[in-house]
Amino acid sequence: MIRFFILFLVLLGVLFGLELTPPVQQWFVVPWTNALAHVSAGLVTLFDPGVEAAGKVLRSTGNGFAVSIEAGCNGVEATLVLLAAMLAFPASWPRKLLGLAAGIVAVQGLNIVRVISLFYLGQWNRDVFEWAHLYVWQALIMLDVLIVWLLWVRTLPRGDEPPLPPGAAAAASA
Amino acid sequence: MVRGATRIARPRRLSAFILSVVAWLPLTFAVWYFAAPIILWPAAMLIEGVARAGFSDLVGTIDQAGATLTFTTTLRPGTGAGGGFISVDVNLLLYSFGMPLLAALILAARETTWKRHLVVGYLVLTPFIAWGGLADFLKNVAITAGPAVASQTNFSAAQREAIAFAFQFGSLILPAIVPAIVWVLMHRRFLERLRNDAAARA
């Protein structure tokens, strides 16, 4: 378990450091964030035609309210955490890749819900928007990552996971 | 004691656990928000201690009002002698939203040692909240405030890069990931029960 956590933290630090570099920002983060805004706008226009996306901004054509998807709200960091957790955990590569594919869909899917919900919360009440934006959704996204990781770990065959300490194993098998 | 051991060994469904976490979150968020001045006081003290030890030439006074720390610096807004001193407000709630998440995870797991877990979790999270708050202050004076103020801090380019990274890591990664790591480390037996449940139903 200790080996897993050390590897996880090292991977997370490296991935996050890479994310902050200008080339990764230019070629991955910015296009990803723009795509997120367009996908969100595409989904919203299914029931609200007065919405458009421009770059990383989601805007109401009716009242002019707009949200800009910034770092921390594009789901990239949450995805990096999941990526590091799955890569660091002892499992076969096919299982890692399958878990990552499903996990990224789950994390980004909830992140789209976050963006759309904040877009409407902001038009309704600015205080509620700030609360949801700065605190609640941050926690919910990380809870999503944790749940996805737990679900994935449960699918792994016995013997892939790191051994529990003797006391824990005894209690678990009692 | 025997009853506690029996309860630990019982398999636990992940779906029930998730629902329980979601049910606890409104309460833990409310307690965290309204008790923030008290809950965050140790982090504020830690920030003040580190700031006075490491950046005494930048910091004049540090005052806590609710969850906000106000740093009154020794820095001037411009190069002239007048104009007073720069002050920086730091909202510690931004770096502590993991506390209600961790509390909800601990309470939902229903371990017999939940009280100890809450205390340990709180103690472990506090330094990371202090990291975020201090990095926020340093980012403000070394980068955001502009060249006229940043030049008075005497930080080198490499130090400003380190401050930027510390702030980004302390605001985007640590507040969310530390509670998850702490919870996993404290609930390895619980995780085993979740796996037992999955194996039993497979």
Description:
The complex is a heterodimer of chains A (174) and B (202). Chain A has six helices and three strands; from the N terminus they run H-H-E-E-E-H-H-H-H. Chain A has helices at residues 2-19, 22-44, 76-88, 93-124, 126-155, 166-173; strands at 51-54, 57-60, 66-68. A three-stranded antiparallel β-sheet of chain A has the order 1-2-3, covered by helices on one side. Chain A is elongated, with a radius of gyration of 19 Å. Chain B has one domain (13-201). Chain B has a three-stranded antiparallel β-sheet with strand order 1-2-3, with helices on one face. In chain B, a hairpin with a 2-residue loop joins strand 1 and strand 2 (68-73). In chain B, helix 6 packs across helix 7. The longest helix of chain B is centred in the middle third of the chain and has 31 residues, at 114-144. The radius of gyration of chain B is 21 Å and the shape is elongated. The two termini of chain B are 31 Å apart. Mean pLDDT of chain B is 88; it is low at 1-9. Classes of the chains: A mainly alpha (174), B mainly alpha (202).
